[in-house]
Design goal:
- By secondary structure, the protein is mainly α.
- It contains four helices and no strands.
- Helix 1 crosses helix 4 and helix 3 runs antiparallel to helix 4.
- The longest helix has 15 residues.
Length: 88
């Protein structure tokens, strides 16, 4: 799917560093959930069941077989997220 906006690499890196709270170079499910809760709070947004379903499906697809996100996988997810939720 075409993306309406692209998050600059420096912002992806900053977001990745903030989400990777144990600093092991990957983002696990709990770290991603914590980061997304912080984003929702920042935007004063209460995610719907459909929102959560989209996030889970997309995050799992982007994370791949190891179920954790590398920085490039996080970047792909973050851009999809920003476009899906019209954050640009």
């Amino acid at each position: 799917a075409a993306q309406g906006c692209v998050i600059p690499a420096a912002h992806v890196h900053e977001g990745f560093e903030m989400a990777d709270t144990n600093h092991n170079g990957s983002i696990n499910q709990q770290e991603l959930l914590n980061a997304l809760q912080a984003v929702a709070k920042h935007y004063h947004y209460k995610p719907t069941h459909a929102d959560m379903s989209w996030v889970e499906k997309t995050a799992m697809a982007d994370a791949g077989a190891d179920h954790v996100m590398s920085e490039p996988e996080f970047g792909k997810f973050a851009n999809s997220f920003a476009n899906h939720f019209h954050l640009c």
